[in-house]
Design a protein that fits this description.
The chain is an alpha+beta fold and about 160 residues long. The chain is built from one helix and six strands; from the N terminus they run H-E-E-E-E-E-E. A hairpin with a 5-residue loop joins strand 4 and strand 5.
Length: about 160
């Protein structure tokens, strides 16, 4: 009778553990899938915006499955109420299959290149290495006079030359 009660308790414990692990695997796979789909969506938005190419999409991670292990305190040569019978317990294990199929990869777009805006005839950028002070005037070979000027911008002071005549 004692052995029958012990086996019933063991069977109940194994069934409860299996049910808990099944729910745990389901919950973990839902979280992993949700996180992956969010990351994939973020990546695909970058591709569609032209900030990234589509050559290296994020791959779906491996899902969880129910694994089993033999209780090392049971089996041949063990002392206890179960004798030489090994007891096998379920646990959540990393599987080999992806948690979900990969969504469709968006097409790669050419990055947007803004059109070149022509410079006006009366304004020129300051050449690299120019250290002349604001207000400096220079006469060019064609007889026109240019003056160095400055204008504050949200990004700092912008220096340029304006043609006066």
């Amino acid at each position: 009778m004692k052995e029958e009660v012990t086996n019933n308790l063991l069977d109940a414990a194994q069934a409860n553990t299996l049910a808990a692990v099944q729910q745990q695997v389901k919950d973990w796979n839902n979280v992993v899938k949700s996180n992956y789909l969010t990351a994939f969506d973020n990546w695909s938005q970058s591709v569609l915006a032209g900030r990234a190419d589509n050559s290296n999409p994020p791959q779906p991670p491996k899902g969880y499955v129910i694994g089993h292990f033999t209780d090392p305190t049971t089996g041949p040569g063990s002392v206890g109420p179960y004798g030489d019978t090994p007891i096998i317990w379920p646990y959540p294990a990393q599987g080999n299959d992806p948690v979900c199929p990969m969504p469709p990869v968006p097409p790669s777009l050419k990055p947007y290149t803004p059109p070149v805006i022509p410079e006006p005839d009366n304004v020129r950028n300051v050449p690299v290495g120019d250290t002349m002070p604001v207000g400096y005037r220079i006469k060019t070979a064609d007889g026109s006079v240019w003056q160095k000027q400055a204008s504050p911008t949200p990004f700092g002071v912008e220096y340029y030359y304006t043609r006066l005549s």
